[in-house]
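Hi R.,

Here's the chain you asked about this morning:
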Amino acid sequence: MSENGGNIRYMVEFTIPDDFTDEMSETIPAQRNKVETYFYNGKLLSYTLAADRSKLWAIFVCHSEAELINLIEKLPMTKYLDYNYNQILFHEMITKFPSFSLN
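And here is the predicted structure, written out as tokens:
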């Protein structure tokens, strides 16, 4: 168990094959739905695709490595991708810049 209430963060790097097939493409809507569910349930903090579509990075929040693997394996595209992961100490990002009043 970690110091942050049992929530462990992992950076997962997926490698997308060069020969992206129609069969793989057909899983995109289901992948998006699962990703949205993970965001909603607080299991996913970020999800990023490289501009050349060769890599996909995701930050997961889990209670254990076993839970992480279970979440990864439930993603529809995982069967077509290679992946590796590392536990990370923290993940910071800005989602919205503060607005300033001109008054």
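One quick note: DSSP finds three helices and four strands in the chain.

Cheers,
M.
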